[in-house]
Amino acid sequence: MEPIDINAPTTPKITPDLAKSPTGPLRVDNYVSNEKTHLQPVRTFSTDLANAVREKGGSIARIAIAEDEKNRREKEETSISSRKNILFTSIGIILFATAVGAIIWSYLYTKQASVVAPVQQTAPSSIVYTENNQTIDATGMDAPAIVSTINAIVTAPNIQSGTMKNIVITQSSVRIPGSQFLTAIGAIHAPDDFLRSLAPEYMLGTYLYNQDSLFLVIRGTAHDFLLSGMISWEPFLLKDLAPLFAIDTATNPSILNAKWNDTFIENRNARAIVDANNKPILFYSFLDQNTILFATDPKALTAVVARF
Prior knowledge:
By secondary structure, the protein is an alpha+beta fold. The chain folds into 3 domains: about 15-80, no CATH class; about 80-110; about 130-305, no CATH class.
């Protein structure tokens, strides 16, 4: 065994395989290989800036100014105070204000229309066609006052011969229904079942033909209740309706006890109380199963039937 000289320079031992490398000798440990590396250098802003100065001849100050200008433009594009954004914002505000204005205008117009609509003069509904209408506000009025007002209209109808007038009775500006009308004029003997069977629609009218005459049309919801109710009401019917039809019972009180009889008036079935001359004092006739007409003049029955 040979002795080792510790002062001798150390040289790495090259293996035969390494020595025969086709690319030439390779350094090991502290030596670098002669092969070209495939790693790309790392780019940084400073190296890009230096390359730009070297290749394009620009100064760092000019590049910094250009970069600052670019940043300023980008900031201006996204800023709310930019011209483009101001334009879009202004358009948006105008559109929003227009929409709000349209909504407000629509609301006010609808509200105004709803307030103005009731002012329009429309003819009150009636069961048969009439040429004229007159309203009586019965608010706070008792039965004699209501009847007296109706009689005054009948006495001075202010209509042409052969025409009709519809008399509308209201309370607090609301048209009262049929059952309430009978109660309001003092028809206190009308059976409760009969009143409950009445429909809200009714018609009080006057017909002018040589002489003026009043008529009343009421409607029911069930024929059986109407028919039975009328039969039950007959003993008191003339007393309840005499004031409305201006029938004088004071000078001839015996007629209050007169019997109702079947008869024909203007070729129609009717129930009537007649005088000594067989002239009807008051009669009623069914226009259909649920509609009844009360009158004193046969001409009124004929006119109402013709228009019904």
